[in-house]
Amino acid sequence: MGMDLALTEEQRLIVDMVRRFVREEIVPLEAKLDPDADELPLEEFNRLVAMVKEMGLYGLDTPPEWGGPEINLLTRCLIAIECGQHRAGLYAPCYYVFGGARQAQLFEATDEQKEQYLYPMLRGEKKTFFALSEPSGGSDPARAIQTRAVRDGDHWVLSGTKLWISGADRADYGLLFARTGGPGRGGVTAFIIETGWDGFNVRRAVHTLRSAKYATEIELKDLRVPHENMLGEEGGGFSIANDRLMRQRIPYAAECIGIAVKANEMAVEYAKVRETFGAPLSERQGIQWMLVENEIDIRAMKWL
């Protein structure tokens, strides 16, 4: 008996609903914004958030028991594909009006940590960041992390540098990984740190492809972190980081498919109207081949 890979009726309805939302709400609104904008005016943001809540899709990465929608990973990826199909889709999909949980690891935090950090984040009262990468390497905790955390009584003293960290200059707190033991995965521990503490410094903005969307470099100089702000167990930081990377990188990859879908759609439309030597590009066999190959690649990525 073959495997049924068809979408369910519910999934088709969700895809259609999100697609219409992007095309009827996000795209027209985006046309009025600066090309590099990654945020909506507050009034428009609140209006669209209310619409998403009415759709029952607010808080896509929030577990259902904490108020998130009852969707599986495939449905989450289908939504991500649609949310990526606009100008800022790669860096600010739907300008974050679908909510989410940037620090999903905090659902496993202690009750005290949840009260101080998780719940304010879910209510939109506090902004966060995730600090894993360093100048010595990217998402490779087993080898690249050189930031050190040394126990000093009821505190840990952190020193080091983090790089490519999004939103640290606008955040209230963040989840940061430091080495508390020897080399390898077992030597990394996760800490919740507040940006207002002495010893925390955003050294510079790191611009990439878009002027308005940038990362930061963080410098830690003898930053004292209370022991109760350690997330999980000492040496358990790799599993915490891996949990985020595994669960949230997959929808991010789906957003990239959405970008490809929109780019190819734009290319097809342009080929129909751009003429060379008395005929539109769409009638040139070489152009047709490229567009067809694009479509084949996109369909293959969706099956993956």
From TrEMBL:
Pfam families: Acyl-CoA_dh_1, Acyl-CoA_dh_M, Acyl-CoA_dh_N. SUPFAM superfamilies: Acyl-CoA dehydrogenase C-terminal domain-like, Acyl-CoA dehydrogenase NM domain-like. InterPro entries: Acyl-CoA_dehydrogenase (IPR050741), Acyl-CoA_Oxase/DH_mid-dom (IPR006091), Acyl-CoA_Oxase/DH_mid-dom_sf (IPR046373), AcylCo_DH-like_C (IPR036250), AcylCo_DH/oxidase_C (IPR009075), AcylCoA_DH/ox_N (IPR013786), AcylCoA_DH/ox_N_sf (IPR037069), AcylCoA_DH/oxidase_NM_dom_sf (IPR009100). One of its GO terms (cellular component) is cytoplasm. The keyword Electron transport does not apply. Residues 235-302 form the Acyl-CoA dehydrogenase/oxidase C-terminal domain. The keyword Cell membrane does not apply. Residues 8-125 form the Acyl-CoA dehydrogenase/oxidase N-terminal domain. Its cofactor is FAD. Residues 130-222 form the Acyl-CoA oxidase/dehydrogenase middle domain. GO terms for biological process: fatty acid beta-oxidation using acyl-CoA dehydrogenase. Keywords: FAD, Flavoprotein, Oxidoreductase. GO terms for molecular function: acyl-CoA dehydrogenase activity; flavin adenine dinucleotide binding. Belongs to the acyl-CoA dehydrogenase family. This is Cyclohexanecarboxyl-CoA dehydrogenase. It comes from marine metagenome.
